[in-house]
């Protein structure tokens, strides 16, 4: 699996040092919140430009925002490699996927824990990544919700049966135990925040998570 650290729980007063402390991670996960789609508010596209100065990682941007159509271009220009929006945030998912891809960025789609995974059926042929939320989006440190496992298994079966090549990503409550569980049902990418940043040996933790 690929481990994509989310630096939301890191120390932003020494952000460069924090990002360099996880330089063995191939991906870096950006949790973008607008205080509307979810209650919390974080950073915007400008932080991608800042981190791009000292990181060569894959920039994996998760937009937990309203009206994602209005903002994807900013993230593409700022260096995003993947832009993931929420199915619940737009009525035009198919058009938004096309727009993201037209910006030479890979397109991802995410669903909240209460959303049925089958709503994505018609989009799976066009998408590059599906992000399953195993916690309610909007804040870190929550407990993993086991309902995510059935969704991952469903997507993995759809992928195999139809020859699709989208990645399955999981975000929320990931540690060694839950990483093994999601890997066993087909996850390709795990987003991990406080479990990494609360420890000193961060690069070692990342390697262990990728090889559970």
The description of the largest β-sheet is:
8 strands, parallel
Distance between the termini: 9 Å
SS-based structural class? alpha/beta
| Domain unit count | 1
> Which sequence of strands runs across the widest sheet?
1-8-7-6-5-4-3-2
Described by the principal axes of the CA atoms, the overall outline is globular
Average predicted local confidence, pLDDT: 95
Find the count of extended strands (DSSP E, 2+ residues): 8
CATH architecture: Alpha-Beta Barrel
**Low-confidence blocks of residues:** none
Please work out how many helical segments DSSP would assign.
8
Description of the structure:
The protein is α/β, with parallel strands linked by helices. 32% of the residues lie in helices and 20% in strands. An eight-stranded parallel sheet has the order 1-8-7-6-5-4-3-2. Helix 4 links the parallel strand 4 and strand 5 (106-111). The longest helix is centred in the last third of the chain and has 16 residues, at 147-162. The relative contact order is 0.17. The model has no long low-confidence stretch (mean pLDDT 95).
